[in-house]
């Protein structure tokens, strides 16, 4: 209200409290506690898209079923439409015919969106790396991936560990750096 | 059953099923059919009341690069008699005349199977009502399941 931005900046950097952004109308916001709240709420309610192409989908279904329940971690509902989802778990092989479909689904998701590559086929083409004309050698040729979960297929516990790692990654986000640029991805920088 | 077929088509090669006398046989009785007798044998197997092979449960193709032909394999079952038989039809060679007559009007299940064999191996089925690619995109060049197929863009050689 009456604090100059320069003074606030000095105070904040002196005591290492976080970053200062301008809140409009002369106000300034200290974003660390806000970041924490936003990140906490985002990581604890990741709703995945129903996306499974291959055998990893069975393990993903097992992760969602009663014994290893992923809704303990906040992924309560799997949305059928990408417009309402914020996580896409690429469970299965991506073939050349499926690649533009996957890209379209990812583009239809709203920010913030996260991607987990589950299983060997989504990480690198897996068992189909050699001598095949139809498999994309890794889903990160198509969309930017946040967490890779190895396995063929990974056990449900492994997928839950991958979700927990993604949650740790979300905790570290800061307000100015959230949106991923698709131009950067296409240039190979992401 | 075998005798009946052999009686009607005497010069068709028969590979017997696995038994005590033929330990290297496969699960079903197989008949190697030349391409010109394929439709006659198919109609005979379907229409003869004791044989009644009315169910074509598989149609696949095989590439024999060393022998120099392509082959289509037909798995037939008789739902009334409970018997299965396998027919093998060979093409003349692998490049120009890889043709076989279609059986899609005899068993309608052959329609998509023959499209798949054309798509992946390149056997052209004469008389097929709609012979075009099934699994690959329509502008794909080449037939991937042939042994000499090369694709430097997609395939990484081991």
Question: What does it look like?
Answer:
- The complex is a heterodimer of chains A (190) and B (158).
- By secondary structure, chain A is an alpha/beta fold.
- Chain A is 37% helix and 13% strand.
- Chain A has a four-stranded parallel β-sheet with strand order 3-4-5-6.
- In chain A, α3 links the parallel β3 and β4 (87-91).
- In chain A, α2 runs antiparallel to α6 (156-171) and α3 (55-64) crosses α6.
- The mean pLDDT of chain A is 85.
- The model of chain B has no long low-confidence stretch (mean pLDDT 86).
- Chain B has a five-stranded mixed β-sheet, with helices on one face. A two-stranded parallel ribbon of chain B has the order 6-7.
- The N and C termini of chain B lie far apart (47 Å).
- Chain B has helices spanning 2-8, 38-47, 110-121; strands spanning 13-15, 29-33, 55-64, 69-78, 83-90, 99-101, 124-126.
- Chain B has a single domain (2-126), classed as 2-Layer Sandwich (Beta Polymerase, domain 2), CATH 3.30.460.
- Chain B is globular, with a radius of gyration of 17 Å.
- With 158 residues, chain B is an alpha/beta fold.
- Chain B contains three helices and seven strands.
- The chains are: A alpha/beta (190), B alpha/beta (158).
- The A-B interface holds A 96-97, 129-134, 137 and B 136-137, 144, 149, 151, 154-158.
- Which segments of chain A are poorly predicted (pLDDT under 50) over 5 or more consecutive residues? none
The biggest beta sheet of chain A reads: 4 strands, parallel
Please count the beta strands of chain B (DSSP E, at least 2 residues each): 7
Give the distance, in angstroms, between the N- and C-terminal Cα atoms of chain A. 39 Å
**What is the C-alpha radius of gyration of chain B, as a whole number of Å?**
17 Å
Q: Span from first to last CA of chain B? A: 47 Å
Structural class of chain A, by secondary structure, is: alpha/beta
> Would you identify the CATH architecture of chain B?
2-Layer Sandwich
Overall form of chain A: globular
What assembly state would you assign to the polypeptide chains in this entry? heterodimer
Order of strands across the widest beta sheet of chain B?
A: 1-2-5-4-3
Largest sheet of chain B: 5 strands, mixed
Strands across the major sheet of chain A, in which order? 3-4-5-6
CATH topology description of chain B? Beta Polymerase, domain 2
The CATH C-level class name of chain B: Alpha Beta
- Mean pLDDT across the residues of chain B is 86
